[in-house]
Amino acid sequence: MLSKTTLFFALYLLACFTGFAQDEAFNYEEAKVPPFSLPDPFVSLKGEPIETIQDWEIQRRGEIVSLFENEVYGQVPRDLDAIRFELISEDTQAMNGNAHLKEIDILVERDGDSNRLRLILFIPNALTGPAPVFLLINHRDPENIDPTRQVKTGFWPAEKIVQRGYAAATFHVNDVSDDTNETFKEDILNTLYPEQLEMGNGMRGLGAWAWGAMRAMDYFVTDAQIDARRAAVVGHSRGGKASLWTGAQDTRWAITISNESGCGGAALSRRRFGETVKRINTNFPYWFTDNFNRYNDQEDLLPVDQHLLVAAIAPRAVYVASASEDQWADPKGEFLSLRHGTRVHREIYGMEGAFPSVLPAPESPLHLPYAGHHIREGKHNLTPYDWQRFMDFADQLYRKSYE
Hints:
Helices cover 33% and strands 20% of the residues. By secondary structure, it is of the alpha/beta class.
């Protein structure tokens, strides 16, 4: 019998392909991309120029995050009454002695109710000090993050991550909000934050997943074996949308990584290439806040576009990855978003290096001091090739930061 997550993924693919057949409006030709202009990261809502770090951090960044909260992802509530970390199981000689496995339940309480999130964590035994960590927001079948390692997949190559000297951490999104329209309200929305469901700008599925990643960071800062200053949050596809929202919301992450996140993730909405705002809101109405529906077929009315989400992560590092055959996610739109968004890294924070004006060729990774990019040959997936590039970038960033 198929698991709920596997079944939903199959239905997701069916919905996409059904959309291809039934709606001829989907565009896969650059010549048909409409003219558009992007909201300027360097002009405030009051029309004032943003020229200094103080201007950015005190005024513009907060404006941008608030706009995304109100119009796209919804609020991410911070209030809770208590948070506890319970070590459920432990194996100091996991992965044939190469890793220390911890399974931790993160218990969050609010207004007399509680929710549990299971964090899986492998820490390299070869290190003598705290380990930098990669956290994967996992939306696929739980077998992809099997803590026993009886099942291993390229989606989360934990052994390779540990071998490179990084802790490998993950949680499943169903612990905070199911990835189905029928049951997404279960877990934290009904249990901890029911008032959000009554708000036009209230938290929905993707915001709940970001909330879960933030709770994992709450744990990392308490674990002496983890270097929380060198933590990266990773998401693929819809998980990549959530990882970008996590990085924009929570400044504790050193690196935010989006893999093939497409519409509502790294890709520019105004390009109307591949998946569109209307299609994603129609197929997945529980991912984004209700207010996002205002922009179905009205992308130019959005007060933001996804380059501003990248910008909101500055000065912290951001990585955007795509796949050559994943036109639904618009690799060019993802690259343009990264290039335009990281202007803040360069022009406000004075960081060196810039992305080229043309889309790089597949498997020609570009790693700047503050951002990374690659296009992998192949289809929509998260693969060992992608992970190796993410770790290459982290190696470079952390070596520079701690020299």
